[in-house]
């Protein structure tokens, strides 16, 4: 799979494009060299044949047919290797002179240039070889063939063609290998940036992209991104500090104000004034709850993903206890409250934080589900993960807002008239992140327009008892040794 992903990278595709352009250039260059080399050698052979024909024509004009025959015989005698080929015959194919015994099949009934094979049928005693010749008519009804053995020339052409083919193959292989190596090197550095980016997106804001100190393009990009991250973290910390300071500083005077209002509520005798004071106390409680939630979220986000304080928690039992607490509230709204809980499931976490997370989700489900609606609570296990799921048949959340509901103070438009401060799901998200969990939000009844409902699915890592696992491994090793001793 890694090789396949490597081949899909833009770097490798760019290298492949360069390889195609480079290979095409090399092919055109080698083709031009071959064309010029082979063409030159062929032209040189033809010029040699033409020169011999010119010499024979001059002898024929000066000495006649007998002189032509004599010259051909002399040339054949001086060339024992038969590099030059001659054949002079009458119009009835009667041989007069030459080192060929008969006409090649390619020369039957035609003149001009021909290519043929020297073999036994032509009186050739050696192994078959390639030849090139020119045929023309001589006055008096005679036919003359003058040619050259071009077998060495063809062998040289084949060697050049083989060299070109091997050169192209090696060029393509080296270009492909170079493209792969370049792509691999580039992909590694990009993957480092991607891995660091993913960690930052998961909340590890202290992560930074490593550099090699080469000051190349990737180092400059990494430094710019790191500076950008430093600036973002600085601004976020500033905003968080301001909001946390406001919440902390206002909580004390609000508590005093709330206590004074409660004291006033107990002292007034007027029913109307008592109602106004009770409403003021309720509003103060709502403000205090908002500030307390803000401060708790801030503490959780500052705490990060540390697992130092996490302990084994029976999540199934914890969810069951929360359901018992909220079951009466659901009954008041005539809601169907279904539980599918495996109480043996255990996770590693902070019991108080997990209970807060579970309570917030169940409370939201009851709050946003109409009367006679349904609520389903599930706790199950899949391999090494634990699934906690809350589903309802309430008003639901539009698709374009599902990724926003875990933001602070964000509330879906249709639920703004209901009581709440928009911090409950932010707290859920912070608790899930501390416990290395993931959250998935979807419709409980997809396609239903009026009440599509909402399904919140939180996946947490399952708790593994390390001591029990070590004892299990030791027991398996002991059993294996006993079996080996018995077999021995």
Give a written overview of the molecule.
By secondary structure, the protein is of the alpha+beta class. It has three domains: 2-155, Beta-Lactamase; 217-303, Orthogonal Bundle (Helix Hairpins), CATH 1.10.287.130; 311-469, Histidine kinase-like ATPase, C-terminal domain (Heat Shock Protein 90). It contains nine helices and twelve strands. The strands form three sheets. The chain has a five-stranded antiparallel sheet. A five-stranded mixed sheet has the order 7-9-10-12-11. The two termini are 43 Å apart. 20% of the residues are buried.
Which residues form runs of ≥5 with pLDDT under 50? Answer: none
* The CATH class of the largest domain: Alpha Beta
Q: Quote the beta fraction.
A: 15-25%
Structural class: alpha+beta
Instruction: Tell me roughly what share of residues is in helical segments.
Output: 55-70%
- The CATH superfamily of the largest domain is identified as Histidine kinase-like ATPase, C-terminal domain
Number of helices: 9
What value does the average pLDDT take? 79
- Identify the overall geometry: rod-shaped
Number of domains: 3
Please name the CATH architecture of the largest domain: 2-Layer Sandwich
Using only CA atoms, what is the Rg?
47 Å
- Number of extended strands: 12
N-to-C SSE string, H for helix and E for strand: HHEEEEEHHHEHEEHEEHEEH
């Amino acid at each position: 799979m890694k090789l396949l992903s490597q081949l899909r990278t833009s770097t490798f595709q760019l290298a492949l494009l360069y390889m195609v352009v480079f290979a095409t250039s090399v092919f055109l260059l080698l083709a031009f060299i071959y064309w010029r080399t082979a063409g030159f050698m062929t032209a040189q052979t033809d010029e040699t044949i033409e020169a011999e024909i010119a010499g024979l024509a001059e002898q024929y004009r000066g000495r006649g047919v007998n002189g032509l025959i004599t010259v051909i015989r002399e040339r054949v005698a001086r060339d024992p290797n038969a590099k030059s080929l001659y054949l002079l015959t009458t119009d009835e194919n009667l041989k007069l002179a030459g080192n060929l015994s008969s006409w090649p099949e390619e020369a039957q009934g035609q003149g001009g240039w021909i290519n043929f094979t020297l073999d036994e049928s032509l009186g050739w005693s050696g192994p078959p070889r390639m030849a090139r010749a020119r045929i023309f008519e001589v006055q008096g009804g005679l036919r003359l063939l003058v040619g050259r053995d071009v077998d060495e020339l063809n062998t040289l052409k084949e060697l050049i063609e083989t060299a070109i083919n091997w050169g192209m193959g090696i060029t393509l292989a080296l270009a492909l290998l170079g493209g792969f190596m370049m792509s691999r090197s580039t992909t590694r550095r990009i993957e480092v940036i991607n891995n660091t980016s993913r960690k930052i997106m998961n909340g590890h804001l202290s992560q930074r992209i490593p550099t090699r100190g080469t000051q190349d393009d990737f180092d400059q990009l990494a430094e710019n991104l790191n500076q950008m991250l430093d600036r973002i973290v600085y601004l976020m910390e500033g905003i968080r500090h301001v909001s946390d300071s406001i919440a902390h500083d206002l909580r004390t005077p609000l508590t005093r104000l709330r206590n004074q209002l409660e004291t006033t509520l107990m002292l007034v005798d007027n029913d109307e004034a008592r109602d106004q004071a009770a409403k003021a106390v309720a509003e103060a409680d709502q403000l205090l709850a908002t500030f307390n939630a803000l401060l708790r979220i801030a503490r959780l986000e500052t705490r990060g993903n540390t697992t130092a304080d996490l302990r084994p928690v029976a999540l199934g039992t914890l969810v069951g206890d929360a359901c018992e607490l909220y079951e009466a509230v659901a009954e008041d709204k005539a809601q169907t409250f279904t539980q599918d809980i495996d109480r043996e499931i255990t996770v590693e976490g902070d019991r108080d934080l997990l209970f807060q997370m579970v309570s917030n989700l169940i409370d939201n489900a009851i709050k946003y589900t109409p009367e006679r609606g349904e609520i389903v609570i599930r706790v199950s296990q899949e391999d090494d993960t634990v699934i906690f799921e809350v589903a309802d048949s309430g008003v639901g959340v539009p698709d374009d807002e599902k990724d926003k509901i875990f933001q602070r103070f964000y509330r879906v438009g249709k639920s703004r008239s209901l009581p709440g401060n928009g911090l409950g799901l932010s707290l859920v998200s912070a608790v899930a992140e501390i416990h290395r969990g993931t959250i998935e939000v979807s419709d409980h009844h997809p396609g239903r327009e009026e009440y599509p409902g909402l399904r919140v699915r939180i996946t947490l890592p399952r708790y593994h008892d390390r001591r029990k696992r070590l004892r299990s491994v030791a027991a398996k090793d002991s059993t294996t040794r006993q079996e080996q001793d018995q077999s021995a």
